[in-house]
Specification:
75% of the residues lie in helices and 0% in strands. By secondary structure, it is an all-alpha fold. It has a single domain (9-152), classed as Ferritin, core subunit, four-helix bundle (Ferritin). α1 (9-39) runs antiparallel to α2 (45-72), α1 runs antiparallel to α4 and α4 packs antiparallel against α5 (130-152). This is Starvation-inducible DNA-binding protein. GO terms for molecular function: DNA binding; ferric iron binding; oxidoreductase activity, acting on metal ions. Belongs to the Dps family.
Length: 155
């Protein structure tokens, strides 16, 4: 059955392309945050361990929301590590940095995801896709707030 939601197929595909990038950023940030949760040490262990857990749980749910929006637009969502690696702008961390570097990397990751969401909002707005723009605005706000909270730890 053809999709008839008031957004042309080419526009849905363009929006999904941007959403796929956000999905890759979200999933990459999820993995990094979860790894840091497992591997945090030092005097801030308890507070950062708990904070990272809250953040990776939020990112896990966000990835599902973004992927389901892609599917709502009748486009298949990327779902492999290799696809995400090609799409994400977030640098992988294969080591275990100290707590300050962990926080720095997560600030950077959330800022990257905020930029990705902001660009996707422009595409969704141009196509008249208020549903996607609304979801993206929520994601943008979440990434900006998390970056602020993490950045505050470094002062």
């Amino acid at each position: 059955m053809a999709v008839s939601i008031g957004i042309a197929k080419k526009d849905r595909e363009q929006i999904a392309k941007h959403l796929s990038k956000l999905l890759a950023d979200t999933y990459s940030l999820y993995l990094k945050t979860h790894s840091f949760h497992w591997n945090i040490t030092g005097p801030h262990f308890n507070s950062l361990h708990t904070m990272f857990e809250t953040q990776y749980n939020e990112l896990w749910l966000a990835a599902d929301e973004v992927a389901e929006r892609i599917r709502t637009l009748d486009v298949f969502a990327p779902g492999s590590y290799s696809q995400f690696a090609k799409l994400t702008s977030i640098k992988e961390e294969s080591g275990v940095p100290d707590w300050k570097e962990m926080v720095n990397q997560l600030v950077e990751g959330h800022e990257i995801a905020a930029h990705t969401a902001r660009e996707a909002i422009k595409v969704a707005d141009a196509a008249g896709d208020e549903g996607t723009a609304d979801m993206l605005t929520g994601r943008l706000k979440a990434h900006e707030k998390t970056a602020w909270m993490l950045r505050s730890l470094l002062k």
